[in-house]
Amino acid sequence: MSKHKVIYDTDPGVDDAMALVFQALHPDIELLGLTSVFGNATIETTTRNARFLAGRFVAGVPVAQGAAAPLERTAPDPLAWIHGDNGLGNIALDMTDEAELDPRSAHRFIVDTVRAHPGEVTLIAVGPLTNLALALAEDPQIATLVKQVVIMGGAFGTDGVLGNVTPAAEANILGDPHAADIVLGAAWPVAIVGLDVTQPTIMSHEYLASLRDRAGHAGQFVWEVSRHYEAFHEQSAQLAGIYVHDSSAVAYLLAPELYTTRSGPVRVVTEGIAIGQTIQKPSTMPVPAPEWDDRPECKVCLGVDVPGMLALYENTLCGTL
Length: 321
Hints:
single chain; Inosine-uridine Nucleoside N-ribohydrolase, Chain A; 12 strands
């Protein structure tokens, strides 16, 4: 019996695809569905990519199309220079075996699936959090029925790690800051895996080449899908490899002992020049802060065992767990 029943809320995206392969191959994860959201590309592109990925790696798992735009803002432009014109590094997409598109909206799929498995479902959300906010709006009680929410997003300034699209904001949170503030204030257990731990975690060129050579079809796919993405990292950050964003959220679910966390409520700035900034009031901070104090605590990842995380991903793809 699988240890973790997961709905993967995603905007594929190269790193989203690499995280999907990770989930598909780990024996302790049972994927119940993929829900698409705008973000790295348009909703039409991210939904197509989710259907392609599900069909190739988790046959029989449904895909539900989600939000095309944020709650209160316009949708961001596709990130073609990062993820390629097709969102998946410009690899050729054979849609012959694409997954079924569920007739329900993503937020309705989330509500129905959580209610069908009360206390069992983990939501791994690696794009803008619009679908989760819409699910809460439709059925607020699901917050008490979700086992855990693991989010890739945000940044909290550890070792000087700040935003990656503005000096204050990380891309997923800035994609829909209003939704993020709602989701982080709901009464479900939330763990935030942000840039503080995803940027220090780097898959080097050599690491990716080793996966290509040792991890069969999955390793070959990870290599091919990451070529455009690695070129972006080399140009933008002079990095001989890639930051490990979305797969870090999966690693946290599987092995939380690899991460050091800090507890406390989190707010998201929703206007002004710092829009999208994530700010935690640590639970050890004694001063009153009314905008935080009536909200539930979140766990924020501040440290990571990088070799341990990379070994977990490698062993999962190579079948050597």
